[in-house]
Amino acid sequence: MVHSMYSRTDALSQFHIPQWGDGFFDISADGHLLVLPQGRGGAVIDLPVLMTELRSRGLETPILLCFPDILHSRILLLHRLFQQAMTRHGYHGQYRCLYPLKVNPQRPVVEAMVAGGQSVGMGLEVGSMPELQAALAAMPDYQRPIVCNGHKDRAFLQLALLGQRLGRQMVIVIEKPREVLLLMELADEMALRPNIGVRLRPLTAGSGRWHASSGPESKFGLNASELFAVLQQLRQRGYLDCVTWLHGHVGSQIASLKTVQAWAREAAYAYVDLVRFGCPVTTVDLGGGLGIDYTGLGDHQDALDYGWVDYADSIVGQFTDICCSEQLLQPHLVTESGRAMAAHHAILLTSLIPMELPAMAWSTTAADQSGVADSQQGDPTRLAQRVLSESMAHQDGIGREFGNFSVFQSLPDSWALGQIFPVVPLQRLLEPPSRWSTLYDLTCDSDGQLTHFCVAGAIRPHLPLPAPQPGVANDLAILLVGAYQTVLGGFHNLFGRPSVVEVCTTTAQQGPIQRIWSGQTALDVLTHALYDAADLQQTLHRMVWQAREQGHIETDELLVMEQWLQESLHNHAYLRMEP
To answer: The domain 8-55+403-516 belongs to what CATH superfamily?
Structure first.
Protein backbone atom coordinates (compact mmCIF):
# COMPACT_ATOMS: atom_id res chain seq x y z
CA MET A 1 0.00 0.00 0.00
CA VAL A 2 1.40 3.39 -1.06
CA HIS A 3 0.76 6.34 1.26
CA SER A 4 0.30 9.69 -0.50
CA MET A 5 1.81 11.62 2.43
CA TYR A 6 5.06 9.65 2.28
CA SER A 7 6.68 9.84 -1.14
CA ARG A 8 9.53 8.12 -2.92
CA THR A 9 11.61 11.23 -2.30
CA ASP A 10 10.90 10.91 1.42
CA ALA A 11 12.04 7.29 1.39
CA LEU A 12 15.24 8.07 -0.52
CA SER A 13 16.02 10.82 1.97
CA GLN A 14 15.10 8.67 4.98
CA PHE A 15 17.73 6.07 4.11
CA HIS A 16 20.19 8.54 2.52
CA ILE A 17 20.42 6.39 -0.62
CA PRO A 18 21.60 9.10 -3.08
CA GLN A 19 24.46 10.05 -0.78
CA TRP A 20 26.09 6.62 -0.42
CA GLY A 21 24.61 4.75 -3.38
CA ASP A 22 26.73 6.29 -6.19
CA GLY A 23 23.82 5.84 -8.59
CA PHE A 24 23.60 2.05 -8.17
CA PHE A 25 20.48 1.96 -5.94
CA ASP A 26 16.98 3.40 -6.12
CA ILE A 27 13.38 2.90 -4.98
CA SER A 28 10.61 1.91 -7.37
CA ALA A 29 7.16 3.48 -7.66
CA ASP A 30 5.71 0.57 -5.65
CA GLY A 31 8.23 0.87 -2.83
CA HIS A 32 10.76 -1.82 -3.79
CA LEU A 33 14.52 -1.45 -3.36
CA LEU A 34 16.21 -1.49 -6.77
CA VAL A 35 19.75 -2.19 -7.98
CA LEU A 36 21.05 -0.46 -11.12
CA PRO A 37 24.23 -2.45 -11.94
CA GLN A 38 25.31 -0.18 -14.81
CA GLY A 39 24.06 2.99 -13.17
CA ARG A 40 21.31 5.25 -14.46
CA GLY A 41 19.91 4.26 -17.83
CA GLY A 42 20.92 0.59 -17.56
CA ALA A 43 19.18 -2.57 -16.48
CA VAL A 44 17.22 -2.60 -13.21
CA ILE A 45 17.04 -5.43 -10.67
CA ASP A 46 14.00 -5.41 -8.38
CA LEU A 47 15.28 -6.99 -5.16
CA PRO A 48 11.92 -8.22 -3.76
CA VAL A 49 11.16 -9.86 -7.12
CA LEU A 50 14.63 -11.41 -7.15
CA MET A 51 14.14 -12.64 -3.57
CA THR A 52 10.89 -14.33 -4.58
CA GLU A 53 12.72 -16.11 -7.39
CA LEU A 54 15.50 -17.26 -5.06
CA ARG A 55 12.99 -18.60 -2.55
CA SER A 56 11.28 -20.53 -5.33
CA ARG A 57 14.65 -22.21 -5.92
CA GLY A 58 14.87 -23.27 -2.30
CA LEU A 59 17.21 -20.55 -1.02
CA GLU A 60 16.63 -18.67 2.18
CA THR A 61 18.43 -15.79 3.84
CA PRO A 62 21.10 -14.90 4.61
CA ILE A 63 22.07 -14.51 0.97
CA LEU A 64 25.02 -12.55 -0.36
CA LEU A 65 24.21 -11.02 -3.75
CA CYS A 66 27.15 -10.23 -6.03
CA PHE A 67 26.80 -7.91 -9.02
CA PRO A 68 29.80 -8.22 -11.39
CA ASP A 69 28.37 -5.43 -13.56
CA ILE A 70 28.97 -3.00 -10.68
CA LEU A 71 32.57 -4.18 -10.44
CA HIS A 72 33.02 -3.58 -14.16
CA SER A 73 31.50 -0.11 -13.87
CA ARG A 74 33.86 0.85 -11.06
CA ILE A 75 36.98 -0.38 -12.87
CA LEU A 76 36.15 1.48 -16.06
CA LEU A 77 35.21 4.67 -14.20
CA LEU A 78 38.48 4.72 -12.27
CA HIS A 79 40.51 4.15 -15.43
CA ARG A 80 38.58 6.81 -17.35
CA LEU A 81 39.06 9.44 -14.64
CA PHE A 82 42.82 8.89 -14.53
CA GLN A 83 43.03 9.03 -18.31
CA GLN A 84 41.13 12.31 -18.29
CA ALA A 85 43.41 13.72 -15.59
CA MET A 86 46.47 12.72 -17.62
CA THR A 87 45.04 14.47 -20.67
CA ARG A 88 44.36 17.65 -18.67
CA HIS A 89 47.89 17.73 -17.28
CA GLY A 90 49.65 16.62 -20.46
CA TYR A 91 50.97 13.55 -18.65
CA HIS A 92 52.91 11.10 -20.82
CA GLY A 93 52.80 7.99 -18.64
CA GLN A 94 49.94 5.50 -18.53
CA TYR A 95 47.59 4.45 -15.76
CA ARG A 96 46.74 0.94 -14.60
CA CYS A 97 44.68 -0.28 -11.65
CA LEU A 98 45.35 -3.44 -9.66
CA TYR A 99 42.87 -5.50 -7.68
CA PRO A 100 44.24 -6.69 -4.30
CA LEU A 101 42.91 -10.16 -3.57
CA LYS A 102 42.92 -9.45 0.19
CA VAL A 103 39.88 -7.18 -0.31
CA ASN A 104 37.67 -10.06 -1.41
CA PRO A 105 39.30 -13.26 -2.72
CA GLN A 106 36.08 -15.14 -3.47
CA ARG A 107 36.20 -16.81 -6.84
CA PRO A 108 33.26 -14.97 -8.49
CA VAL A 109 34.71 -11.61 -7.42
CA VAL A 110 38.21 -12.33 -8.73
CA GLU A 111 36.82 -13.73 -11.98
CA ALA A 112 34.63 -10.65 -12.44
CA MET A 113 37.55 -8.33 -11.73
CA VAL A 114 39.79 -10.11 -14.23
CA ALA A 115 37.08 -10.07 -16.90
CA GLY A 116 35.98 -6.49 -16.24
CA GLY A 117 39.55 -5.19 -16.25
CA GLN A 118 40.66 -6.88 -19.44
CA SER A 119 40.09 -3.88 -21.71
CA VAL A 120 42.17 -1.60 -19.47
CA GLY A 121 44.93 -4.08 -18.60
CA MET A 122 44.06 -4.34 -14.92
CA GLY A 123 46.37 -6.60 -12.91
CA LEU A 124 46.19 -8.39 -9.57
CA GLU A 125 48.02 -7.85 -6.29
CA VAL A 126 48.73 -10.71 -3.88
CA GLY A 127 50.22 -10.96 -0.41
CA SER A 128 50.36 -14.70 0.35
CA MET A 129 51.10 -18.02 -1.28
CA PRO A 130 47.41 -19.04 -1.66
CA GLU A 131 46.57 -15.64 -3.15
CA LEU A 132 49.44 -16.01 -5.64
CA GLN A 133 48.21 -19.47 -6.65
CA ALA A 134 44.68 -18.12 -7.14
CA ALA A 135 45.98 -15.17 -9.21
CA LEU A 136 48.07 -17.39 -11.48
CA ALA A 137 45.04 -19.58 -12.13
CA ALA A 138 42.64 -16.67 -12.63
CA MET A 139 44.73 -14.45 -14.91
CA PRO A 140 44.66 -15.76 -18.50
CA ASP A 141 46.35 -12.67 -19.97
CA TYR A 142 50.16 -12.92 -19.94
CA GLN A 143 50.55 -9.17 -20.42
CA ARG A 144 48.80 -8.09 -17.22
CA PRO A 145 50.90 -7.84 -14.06
CA ILE A 146 50.67 -9.91 -10.90
CA VAL A 147 52.30 -7.90 -8.13
CA CYS A 148 53.67 -9.87 -5.16
CA ASN A 149 53.61 -7.96 -1.87
CA GLY A 150 53.69 -9.14 1.71
CA HIS A 151 56.22 -11.23 3.62
CA LYS A 152 57.89 -13.85 1.43
CA ASP A 153 59.69 -17.11 2.12
CA ARG A 154 61.61 -19.31 -0.30
CA ALA A 155 58.48 -21.15 -1.51
CA PHE A 156 56.63 -17.90 -2.21
CA LEU A 157 59.56 -16.46 -4.18
CA GLN A 158 60.05 -19.72 -6.08
CA LEU A 159 56.41 -19.71 -7.18
CA ALA A 160 56.64 -16.06 -8.26
CA LEU A 161 59.78 -16.73 -10.29
CA LEU A 162 58.16 -19.85 -11.76
CA GLY A 163 55.28 -17.64 -12.89
CA GLN A 164 57.80 -15.43 -14.68
CA ARG A 165 59.42 -18.50 -16.22
CA LEU A 166 56.01 -19.47 -17.57
CA GLY A 167 55.67 -16.09 -19.26
CA ARG A 168 53.60 -14.19 -16.68
CA GLN A 169 54.30 -10.53 -15.90
CA MET A 170 55.41 -10.98 -12.30
CA VAL A 171 56.53 -8.07 -10.11
CA ILE A 172 58.28 -9.16 -6.91
CA VAL A 173 58.23 -6.32 -4.39
CA ILE A 174 60.91 -6.33 -1.69
CA GLU A 175 58.96 -5.83 1.53
CA LYS A 176 61.68 -6.66 4.09
CA PRO A 177 65.50 -6.50 3.88
CA ARG A 178 65.98 -10.25 4.30
CA GLU A 179 64.00 -10.95 1.12
CA VAL A 180 66.56 -9.43 -1.25
CA LEU A 181 69.33 -11.98 -0.63
CA LEU A 182 66.92 -14.89 -0.97
CA LEU A 183 65.47 -13.46 -4.18
CA MET A 184 68.89 -13.00 -5.77
CA GLU A 185 69.95 -16.51 -4.75
CA LEU A 186 66.87 -18.04 -6.37
CA ALA A 187 67.19 -15.84 -9.46
CA ASP A 188 70.77 -17.09 -9.89
CA GLU A 189 69.64 -20.71 -9.55
CA MET A 190 66.84 -20.26 -12.11
CA ALA A 191 68.88 -18.02 -14.43
CA LEU A 192 66.21 -15.31 -14.37
CA ARG A 193 66.30 -11.53 -14.34
CA PRO A 194 63.33 -10.79 -12.04
CA ASN A 195 61.17 -7.73 -12.32
CA ILE A 196 61.85 -6.20 -8.90
CA GLY A 197 59.90 -3.62 -6.97
CA VAL A 198 60.87 -1.94 -3.72
CA ARG A 199 58.29 -0.94 -1.13
CA LEU A 200 58.82 2.39 0.57
CA ARG A 201 57.49 2.94 4.09
CA PRO A 202 55.78 6.35 3.72
CA LEU A 203 56.42 9.26 6.05
CA THR A 204 52.96 10.49 5.14
CA ALA A 205 50.39 9.32 7.67
CA GLY A 206 46.94 8.35 6.49
CA SER A 207 43.72 9.96 7.65
CA GLY A 208 40.38 8.59 8.77
CA ARG A 209 39.50 5.37 10.61
CA TRP A 210 42.71 3.48 9.69
CA HIS A 211 45.24 6.30 10.15
CA ALA A 212 47.03 4.48 13.00
CA SER A 213 48.24 1.76 10.61
CA SER A 214 50.12 4.22 8.40
CA GLY A 215 53.05 6.60 8.61
CA PRO A 216 56.65 5.96 9.68
CA GLU A 217 55.58 3.43 12.36
CA SER A 218 53.69 1.31 9.85
CA LYS A 219 54.62 -2.36 9.57
CA PHE A 220 54.73 -2.11 5.78
CA GLY A 221 57.78 -1.51 3.63
CA LEU A 222 61.38 -0.30 3.95
CA ASN A 223 62.49 2.82 5.76
CA ALA A 224 65.19 5.01 4.20
CA SER A 225 68.19 3.17 5.67
CA GLU A 226 66.75 -0.24 4.82
CA LEU A 227 65.96 0.87 1.27
CA PHE A 228 69.49 2.18 0.81
CA ALA A 229 70.98 -1.10 2.08
CA VAL A 230 68.74 -3.16 -0.25
CA LEU A 231 69.72 -1.06 -3.27
CA GLN A 232 73.41 -1.42 -2.40
CA GLN A 233 73.07 -5.20 -2.27
CA LEU A 234 71.28 -5.26 -5.60
CA ARG A 235 74.01 -3.11 -7.14
CA GLN A 236 76.78 -5.33 -5.78
CA ARG A 237 75.17 -8.47 -7.23
CA GLY A 238 74.29 -6.88 -10.57
CA TYR A 239 70.53 -6.73 -10.08
CA LEU A 240 70.03 -2.98 -9.73
CA ASP A 241 68.84 -2.74 -13.33
CA CYS A 242 65.97 -5.09 -12.41
CA VAL A 243 64.38 -2.50 -10.10
CA THR A 244 61.58 -1.17 -12.29
CA TRP A 245 58.77 -0.70 -9.77
CA LEU A 246 58.32 1.58 -6.73
CA HIS A 247 55.53 0.74 -4.34
CA GLY A 248 54.01 2.27 -1.20
CA HIS A 249 50.73 2.33 0.68
CA VAL A 250 49.61 5.16 2.94
CA GLY A 251 46.55 3.48 4.44
CA SER A 252 43.02 2.31 3.73
CA GLN A 253 40.03 4.64 3.30
CA ILE A 254 41.90 7.96 3.18
CA ALA A 255 39.47 10.65 4.32
CA SER A 256 41.38 13.81 3.36
CA LEU A 257 42.51 15.05 -0.05
CA LYS A 258 45.51 16.69 1.63
CA THR A 259 46.74 13.23 2.60
CA VAL A 260 46.37 12.04 -1.00
CA GLN A 261 48.36 15.03 -2.25
CA ALA A 262 51.07 14.65 0.38
CA TRP A 263 51.55 10.95 -0.37
CA ALA A 264 51.65 11.54 -4.14
CA ARG A 265 54.30 14.23 -3.61
CA GLU A 266 56.38 11.95 -1.36
CA ALA A 267 56.13 9.07 -3.84
CA ALA A 268 57.11 11.33 -6.74
CA TYR A 269 60.28 12.49 -4.98
CA ALA A 270 61.10 8.87 -4.03
CA TYR A 271 60.81 8.01 -7.73
CA VAL A 272 63.26 10.82 -8.53
CA ASP A 273 65.73 9.50 -5.94
CA LEU A 274 65.56 5.92 -7.25
CA VAL A 275 66.14 6.97 -10.84
CA ARG A 276 69.14 9.07 -9.84
CA PHE A 277 70.49 6.14 -7.83
CA GLY A 278 70.54 4.16 -11.06
CA CYS A 279 67.29 2.20 -10.92
CA PRO A 280 65.38 2.11 -14.24
CA VAL A 281 62.01 2.61 -12.51
CA THR A 282 59.14 2.84 -15.00
CA THR A 283 56.13 2.38 -12.68
CA VAL A 284 55.03 3.89 -9.38
CA ASP A 285 52.36 1.98 -7.46
CA LEU A 286 50.67 4.26 -4.90
CA GLY A 287 48.74 1.42 -3.25
CA GLY A 288 45.18 1.75 -2.04
CA GLY A 289 43.40 4.39 -0.02
CA LEU A 290 40.71 5.75 -2.32
CA GLY A 291 37.76 5.89 0.05
CA ILE A 292 34.05 5.38 -0.28
CA ASP A 293 31.37 7.16 1.72
CA TYR A 294 29.47 4.61 3.80
CA THR A 295 27.00 7.15 5.23
CA GLY A 296 27.03 10.24 3.00
CA LEU A 297 27.32 12.41 6.13
CA GLY A 298 29.91 15.16 5.81
CA ASP A 299 30.68 15.32 9.53
CA HIS A 300 31.10 11.57 10.11
CA GLN A 301 34.51 9.97 10.62
CA ASP A 302 34.07 7.90 7.45
CA ALA A 303 33.18 10.96 5.36
CA LEU A 304 35.46 12.04 2.52
CA ASP A 305 36.32 15.61 1.60
CA TYR A 306 37.03 14.66 -2.02
CA GLY A 307 35.64 12.71 -4.95
CA TRP A 308 37.17 10.34 -7.48
CA VAL A 309 37.92 13.17 -9.92
CA ASP A 310 39.85 15.01 -7.20
CA TYR A 311 41.74 11.84 -6.29
CA ALA A 312 42.95 11.18 -9.83
CA ASP A 313 43.72 14.84 -10.51
CA SER A 314 45.77 15.26 -7.31
CA ILE A 315 47.99 12.24 -8.02
CA VAL A 316 48.56 13.06 -11.67
CA GLY A 317 49.10 16.73 -10.90
CA GLN A 318 51.79 16.07 -8.29
CA PHE A 319 53.73 13.71 -10.57
CA THR A 320 53.42 16.09 -13.50
CA ASP A 321 54.84 19.04 -11.57
CA ILE A 322 57.68 17.18 -9.86
CA CYS A 323 58.83 15.21 -12.92
CA CYS A 324 58.83 18.36 -15.00
CA SER A 325 60.80 20.33 -12.40
CA GLU A 326 63.31 17.46 -12.07
CA GLN A 327 63.43 16.94 -15.86
CA LEU A 328 62.66 13.24 -15.65
CA LEU A 329 60.35 11.00 -17.66
CA GLN A 330 56.90 10.63 -16.16
CA PRO A 331 56.37 7.07 -14.86
CA HIS A 332 53.35 4.88 -15.34
CA LEU A 333 51.00 5.21 -12.37
CA VAL A 334 49.24 2.35 -10.56
CA THR A 335 46.69 2.31 -7.76
CA GLU A 336 45.23 -0.59 -5.78
CA SER A 337 41.83 0.86 -4.89
CA GLY A 338 40.22 -2.43 -3.92
CA ARG A 339 37.69 -1.05 -1.43
CA ALA A 340 36.48 1.61 -3.86
CA MET A 341 36.08 -0.94 -6.65
CA ALA A 342 34.47 -3.73 -4.63
CA ALA A 343 32.33 -2.34 -1.80
CA HIS A 344 29.15 -1.50 -3.74
CA HIS A 345 28.91 -4.76 -5.66
CA ALA A 346 27.73 -6.98 -2.79
CA ILE A 347 24.53 -6.90 -0.73
CA LEU A 348 23.70 -9.07 2.25
CA LEU A 349 20.01 -10.04 2.40
CA THR A 350 18.50 -11.09 5.69
CA SER A 351 14.99 -11.75 6.95
CA LEU A 352 13.52 -10.57 10.21
CA ILE A 353 12.48 -13.47 12.42
CA PRO A 354 8.79 -13.25 13.40
CA MET A 355 8.44 -12.61 17.13
CA GLU A 356 5.01 -13.98 18.01
CA LEU A 357 4.10 -12.93 21.56
CA PRO A 358 0.81 -13.56 23.34
CA ALA A 359 -1.54 -10.64 22.87
CA MET A 360 -1.96 -10.41 26.66
CA ALA A 361 1.72 -9.46 27.01
CA TRP A 362 0.97 -6.07 25.44
CA SER A 363 -2.21 -5.37 27.43
CA THR A 364 -2.37 -2.16 29.45
CA THR A 365 -5.80 -2.25 31.11
CA ALA A 366 -6.11 -2.83 34.85
CA ALA A 367 -8.34 -5.84 34.26
CA ASP A 368 -5.77 -7.48 31.97
CA GLN A 369 -2.95 -6.75 34.40
CA SER A 370 -4.99 -8.31 37.21
CA GLY A 371 -5.62 -11.37 35.10
CA VAL A 372 -1.93 -11.77 34.41
CA ALA A 373 -1.06 -11.36 38.08
CA ASP A 374 -3.67 -13.82 39.32
CA SER A 375 -2.35 -16.54 37.04
CA GLN A 376 1.22 -16.33 38.33
CA GLN A 377 3.06 -17.49 41.42
CA GLY A 378 5.01 -14.98 43.53
CA ASP A 379 4.47 -11.24 43.78
CA PRO A 380 1.54 -10.32 41.47
CA THR A 381 2.18 -6.58 41.76
CA ARG A 382 5.73 -6.85 40.51
CA LEU A 383 4.72 -8.91 37.49
CA ALA A 384 1.90 -6.52 36.61
CA GLN A 385 4.30 -3.57 36.76
CA ARG A 386 6.71 -5.34 34.45
CA VAL A 387 3.95 -6.08 31.95
CA LEU A 388 2.96 -2.42 32.03
CA SER A 389 6.52 -1.15 31.52
CA GLU A 390 7.08 -3.49 28.59
CA SER A 391 3.80 -2.48 26.98
CA MET A 392 4.73 1.20 27.32
CA ALA A 393 8.07 0.55 25.61
CA HIS A 394 6.24 -1.20 22.80
CA GLN A 395 3.80 1.71 22.41
CA ASP A 396 6.74 4.10 22.14
CA GLY A 397 7.63 2.28 18.93
CA ILE A 398 11.10 1.10 20.04
CA GLY A 399 11.61 -2.58 19.44
CA ARG A 400 14.15 -5.32 18.97
CA GLU A 401 14.33 -7.21 15.70
CA PHE A 402 16.26 -10.42 15.08
CA GLY A 403 17.70 -11.08 11.64
CA ASN A 404 18.67 -14.43 10.16
CA PHE A 405 22.40 -13.67 9.85
CA SER A 406 25.63 -13.39 11.84
CA VAL A 407 27.33 -10.03 12.36
CA PHE A 408 30.60 -11.84 13.05
CA GLN A 409 30.54 -13.82 9.80
CA SER A 410 29.12 -11.26 7.40
CA LEU A 411 29.85 -7.83 8.94
CA PRO A 412 33.04 -8.15 10.98
CA ASP A 413 33.97 -4.48 10.56
CA SER A 414 30.72 -3.53 12.23
CA TRP A 415 31.55 -5.06 15.62
CA ALA A 416 35.35 -4.81 15.40
CA LEU A 417 35.65 -1.23 14.13
CA GLY A 418 32.22 0.32 14.54
CA GLN A 419 31.84 0.58 10.75
CA ILE A 420 28.36 1.71 9.74
CA PHE A 421 26.78 -0.05 6.77
CA PRO A 422 23.57 1.15 5.09
CA VAL A 423 20.54 -0.98 6.02
CA VAL A 424 17.33 -0.66 3.97
CA PRO A 425 14.11 -2.72 3.87
CA LEU A 426 13.58 -4.51 0.56
CA GLN A 427 9.88 -3.71 0.28
CA ARG A 428 7.14 -1.36 1.54
CA LEU A 429 9.51 1.61 1.35
CA LEU A 430 6.67 4.02 0.52
CA GLU A 431 4.90 3.31 3.79
CA PRO A 432 5.73 5.67 6.65
CA PRO A 433 7.86 3.84 9.24
CA SER A 434 5.79 2.85 12.26
CA ARG A 435 8.48 1.41 14.51
CA TRP A 436 12.11 1.97 15.39
CA SER A 437 14.26 -1.07 16.08
CA THR A 438 17.66 -2.30 17.00
CA LEU A 439 18.81 -5.15 14.78
CA TYR A 440 20.20 -8.27 16.44
CA ASP A 441 21.71 -11.34 14.76
CA LEU A 442 21.32 -15.02 15.67
CA THR A 443 24.52 -15.41 17.66
CA CYS A 444 24.70 -15.89 21.40
CA ASP A 445 26.78 -12.76 21.91
CA SER A 446 25.80 -9.25 22.95
CA ASP A 447 28.07 -7.79 20.24
CA GLY A 448 25.97 -9.49 17.57
CA GLN A 449 23.87 -6.44 16.82
CA LEU A 450 23.66 -3.29 14.72
CA THR A 451 22.96 -0.20 16.82
CA HIS A 452 23.98 2.64 14.52
CA PHE A 453 22.12 3.51 11.33
CA CYS A 454 22.31 6.39 8.88
CA VAL A 455 18.75 7.71 8.90
CA ALA A 456 17.43 11.06 7.65
CA GLY A 457 20.83 12.73 7.60
CA ALA A 458 22.07 11.59 11.01
CA ILE A 459 23.47 8.55 12.81
CA ARG A 460 20.68 7.10 14.93
CA PRO A 461 20.50 4.13 17.32
CA HIS A 462 17.43 2.59 15.69
CA LEU A 463 16.31 1.60 12.20
CA PRO A 464 12.89 2.80 10.92
CA LEU A 465 10.71 -0.08 9.73
CA PRO A 466 7.16 -0.49 8.45
CA ALA A 467 4.61 -2.25 10.66
CA PRO A 468 4.72 -6.06 10.32
CA GLN A 469 1.90 -7.64 8.35
CA PRO A 470 0.91 -11.32 8.43
CA GLY A 471 2.09 -13.17 5.34
CA VAL A 472 4.21 -10.25 4.10
CA ALA A 473 8.00 -10.69 3.89
CA ASN A 474 10.19 -8.63 6.20
CA ASP A 475 13.50 -8.63 4.33
CA LEU A 476 16.40 -6.24 4.81
CA ALA A 477 19.36 -5.35 2.61
CA ILE A 478 22.70 -4.53 4.22
CA LEU A 479 24.72 -2.75 1.57
CA LEU A 480 28.32 -1.83 0.65
CA VAL A 481 29.63 -5.11 2.05
CA GLY A 482 31.72 -6.13 -0.95
CA ALA A 483 35.11 -5.15 0.51
CA TYR A 484 36.81 -7.21 3.23
CA GLN A 485 33.62 -8.48 4.95
CA THR A 486 33.46 -11.92 3.34
CA VAL A 487 37.14 -12.66 3.93
CA LEU A 488 37.42 -11.29 7.49
CA GLY A 489 34.28 -13.02 8.77
CA GLY A 490 34.57 -15.66 11.46
CA PHE A 491 32.60 -18.73 12.47
CA HIS A 492 31.10 -17.53 15.75
CA ASN A 493 28.38 -20.02 16.80
CA LEU A 494 29.43 -22.00 13.71
CA PHE A 495 26.96 -20.25 11.41
CA GLY A 496 29.34 -20.20 8.45
CA ARG A 497 29.14 -18.59 5.04
CA PRO A 498 25.72 -17.63 3.66
CA SER A 499 24.56 -18.58 0.20
CA VAL A 500 26.19 -16.55 -2.57
CA VAL A 501 24.26 -15.58 -5.70
CA GLU A 502 25.84 -13.97 -8.76
CA VAL A 503 23.47 -11.58 -10.55
CA CYS A 504 24.44 -10.24 -13.98
CA THR A 505 22.40 -8.30 -16.51
CA THR A 506 24.89 -7.80 -19.35
CA THR A 507 25.20 -11.52 -20.13
CA ALA A 508 21.76 -12.63 -18.97
CA GLN A 509 20.08 -15.10 -21.33
CA GLN A 510 18.07 -17.20 -18.90
CA GLY A 511 17.48 -14.34 -16.48
CA PRO A 512 19.86 -12.35 -14.29
CA ILE A 513 20.70 -15.17 -11.84
CA GLN A 514 23.95 -16.64 -13.16
CA ARG A 515 25.50 -18.87 -10.49
CA ILE A 516 24.52 -19.98 -6.99
CA TRP A 517 26.80 -21.30 -4.24
CA SER A 518 24.70 -22.74 -1.44
CA GLY A 519 25.49 -21.70 2.10
CA GLN A 520 27.55 -23.93 4.33
CA THR A 521 25.91 -26.85 6.07
CA ALA A 522 26.37 -27.84 9.70
CA LEU A 523 28.88 -30.47 8.58
CA ASP A 524 30.84 -27.90 6.56
CA VAL A 525 31.36 -25.57 9.51
CA LEU A 526 32.04 -28.42 11.95
CA THR A 527 34.78 -29.63 9.63
CA HIS A 528 36.18 -26.09 9.61
CA ALA A 529 36.29 -26.31 13.42
CA LEU A 530 38.50 -29.45 13.13
CA TYR A 531 35.77 -32.04 13.67
CA ASP A 532 36.15 -35.16 11.53
CA ALA A 533 33.11 -35.76 9.32
CA ALA A 534 33.31 -39.55 9.37
CA ASP A 535 33.81 -39.58 13.14
CA LEU A 536 30.80 -37.31 13.67
CA GLN A 537 28.56 -39.53 11.58
CA GLN A 538 29.75 -42.69 13.35
CA THR A 539 29.23 -41.09 16.75
CA LEU A 540 25.65 -40.14 15.89
CA HIS A 541 25.06 -43.68 14.62
CA ARG A 542 26.30 -45.15 17.92
CA MET A 543 24.13 -42.70 19.89
CA VAL A 544 21.00 -44.02 18.23
CA TRP A 545 21.80 -47.70 18.81
CA GLN A 546 22.83 -47.07 22.42
CA ALA A 547 19.53 -45.27 23.00
CA ARG A 548 17.71 -48.35 21.66
CA GLU A 549 19.69 -50.69 23.89
CA GLN A 550 18.91 -48.50 26.93
CA GLY A 551 15.21 -48.47 26.13
CA HIS A 552 14.90 -44.76 25.28
CA ILE A 553 13.50 -45.43 21.81
CA GLU A 554 11.63 -48.30 20.20
CA THR A 555 13.03 -50.49 17.44
CA ASP A 556 10.62 -49.09 14.84
CA GLU A 557 11.88 -45.58 15.67
CA LEU A 558 15.54 -46.42 15.27
CA LEU A 559 15.96 -45.87 11.54
CA VAL A 560 13.89 -42.68 11.57
CA MET A 561 15.92 -41.23 14.43
CA GLU A 562 19.20 -42.08 12.73
CA GLN A 563 18.01 -40.53 9.48
CA TRP A 564 17.04 -37.30 11.28
CA LEU A 565 20.42 -37.05 12.96
CA GLN A 566 22.31 -37.68 9.74
CA GLU A 567 20.16 -35.19 7.83
CA SER A 568 20.79 -32.57 10.50
CA LEU A 569 24.47 -32.54 9.53
CA HIS A 570 23.52 -31.51 5.99
CA ASN A 571 21.06 -28.79 6.95
CA HIS A 572 21.87 -25.13 6.37
CA ALA A 573 23.71 -23.64 9.35
CA TYR A 574 21.24 -20.73 9.58
CA LEU A 575 17.52 -20.83 10.31
CA ARG A 576 15.11 -22.22 7.78
CA MET A 577 12.33 -19.63 7.88
CA GLU A 578 8.83 -21.08 7.87
CA PRO A 579 6.47 -19.66 5.22
So the answer is: Lyase, Ornithine Decarboxylase; Chain A, domain 1 (2.40.37.10)
